[in-house]
Specification:
mainly alpha, 12 helices
Length: 339
């Protein structure tokens, strides 16, 4: 009997996307009068999904010939591991509202794990062993997503100094990593189809940074928040222009890459609508909430159908589950072999 394969780390985006949905419905509870029970029920789903995914990865990993270190060094999968502590931060910040000590411990522990992982993976990248073809949107996760979400969550648990430092880390690496990523997309071969959804991650940084800044500065509009809104608009227009390319893709679990960026952008839009308070702002805010919810429901339904086909023994669906990793592995090897 051959050893089991490790579960691809891109499945961790499921909990991340669900966390984005819970966050936007929590914001709807605060700004639109939605019962808080809806948001809290969704956070419960996030917690179950987060724990279940961690346990599933550990159980499968114990039966695999591939080590965790090898998976973390994988050019496609490695950076996505940052989603474990990132989702932990979001869960901890919500838990802090009800059980402050437990929430604080979870947020701080998750930030420590995220920082250690960021330091390790930055050192690994410095080895120069990754070909440019292996670079994708998930490389924003260990430093940019982790830094900016750490800024929001640490401020919410009463650590403003840590929040400002984390915000600086997130913004710095947003500039650096995005520059490299845009250069890779422009001057090298296109991403494999199964990794193309990671381009949606470019939508998230201005939205997550905007939410972090609103949290830090008390929800006031200023030069920074307006600048981030402008960047979000440009990134949103880029995603709209990419829709024809996205529509040609075969569905895989990699489509969960779309979910959190859409949720984050919609959530930041709801915050701006409430602050601007223009006539009909509630209608705009509800439209954003509905759009974000529709996106994640569509991806969730397609994912259930895909996994159902896998359990029925559909070979093509099973291949789809690992397509992203295999495609980038091949690209990386071609990059190493090219003189």
């Amino acid at each position: 009997m051959s050893p089991a394969q490790r579960i691809p780390l891109n499945t961790l985006a499921i909990a991340f996307g669900l966390a984005g949905l819970a966050a936007i419905w929590t914001a709807a509870g605060q700004l639109l009068g939605v019962p808080d029970l809806i948001g809290q029920a969704l956070w419960g789903v996030v917690g179950v999904a987060w724990i279940w995914l961690i346990v599933a990865h550990l159980r499968r990993g114990a039966r695999s010939a591939e080590s965790l270190a090898d998976q973390l060094r994988h050019p496609a999968q490695g950076p996505i591991a940052a989603l474990v502590p990132v989702v932990g931060m979001l869960l901890g910040a919500d838990l802090y509202r009800f059980v402050p000590l437990a929430g604080e411990i979870l947020v701080i522990a998750s930030i420590v794990v995220a920082a250690l992982f960021a330091g390790w993976i930055l050192a690994f990248w410095h080895r120069g062993s990754l070909p440019p073809e292996a670079f994708h949107g998930g490389y924003l996760l260990p430093t940019v997503a982790a830094g900016l979400i750490a800024a929001t969550t640490s401020f919410r648990i009463g650590l403003p100094g840590l929040a400002i430092g984390a915000f600086a880390v997130g913004v710095f690496f947003w500039i650096v990593v995005s520059t490299v990523l845009l250069a890779r997309l422009a001057f090298f071969a296109p991403l494999p189809d199964a990794l193309t959804p990671t381009c949606a991650i470019l939508l998230a940084p201005p939205a997550v940074a905007g939410t972090a800044w609103f949290t830090i500065n008390g929800g006031h509009t200023d030069f920074v928040s307006m600048a981030l809104l402008g960047l979000l608009v440009v990134m949103a227009l880029q995603q709209v222009a990419l829709i024809p390319r996205y529509r040609r893709l075969t569905f895989t679990l990699g489509f969960w890459s779309f979910t959190f960026p859409v949720e984050a952008a919609a959530g930041y839009g709801v915050e701006w609508a409430a602050l601007a308070a223009f006539p009909g702002w509630q209608d705009v805010a509800w439209l954003l909430v509905a759009l974000a919810t529709a996106v994640i429901l569509a991806v969730a339904v397609r994912s259930v159908l895909l996994v159902t086909r896998v359990r029925r023994g559909a070979r093509r669906a099973e291949i789809a589950l690992r397509h992203a990793d295999d495609a980038v592995e091949a690209g990386a090897l071609r990059g190493r072999d090219t003189p």
